[in-house]
Amino acid sequence: MRLTLHTDYALRALIHVAVADGKLVTISEIAESFDISKQHLMKVVNDLSQKGYLDTVRGRGGGIRLRRLPRDINIGQVVRETEDKLDVIGCLGQRGYCRIERVCVLRGVLHDAIQAFLAVLDGYTLADLVKPKRALSLLLLDQHAARAP
């Protein structure tokens, strides 16, 4: 299973913001910490805000923070809400119609595999992903503070 960059960036942004413990974090800080596209990250943060995961504060001194507690953010749900399609394969028929859809065992097997993948992710929350909080803080937050003038 391969996730899109949108989901990858969403999970990274949530981890970074969770480690900040309620302090406002900027998109630039997150982009710099993970060496990822600021423009793409802006779209991801907007999406996470609309879905109720992040609060955004505009203007000078603004930034983002979690809207929910890390223990209330389920990773499986985040993946479901940020991935457009979780199908591993599409149908090979013309115009999306599969001539063998009713007997396609492969498609059913792969659907079961996706459900198992999501079931594993459902067993984790954002709190689980940030358990090594001190180490993550050193990597994500302190490196940015060290670069600040």
Write a structural description.
- The chain is mainly α and 149 residues long.
- 54% of the residues lie in helices and 5% in strands.
- The protein is built from seven helices and two strands.
- The protein has helices spanning 5-19, 27-34, 38-50, 75-82, 105-122, 126-129, 133-147, and strands spanning 54-57, 63-66.
- A two-stranded antiparallel ribbon has the order 1-2.
- A hairpin with a 5-residue loop joins strand 1 (54-57) and strand 2.
- The longest helix is centred in the last third of the chain and has 18 residues, at 105-122.
- It is elongated and about 55 Å long.
Write the layout of secondary structure elements.
Elements: H1 5-19, H2 27-34, H3 38-50, E1 54-57, E2 63-66, H4 75-82, H5 105-122, H6 126-129, H7 133-147
Antiparallel strand pairs: 1-2
Helix pairs in contact: 1-3, 1-4, 2-3, 2-7, 4-5
- The gyration radius over C-alpha positions equals 18 Å
Strand content: 5-15%
Shape: elongated
Q: Major β-sheet, in short?
A: 2 strands, antiparallel
| SS content category | mainly alpha
The total strand number stands at: 2
- For the largest beta sheet, what order do the strands appear in spatially? 1-2
The stretches of 5 or more residues where confidence is low (pLDDT under 50) are none
Q: Let me know the average pLDDT.
A: 86
How helical, in percent, are the residues?
A: 40-55%
Terminal Cα separation, in Å? Answer: 42 Å
Order of helices and strands: HHHEEHHHH
- How many helices? The count is 7
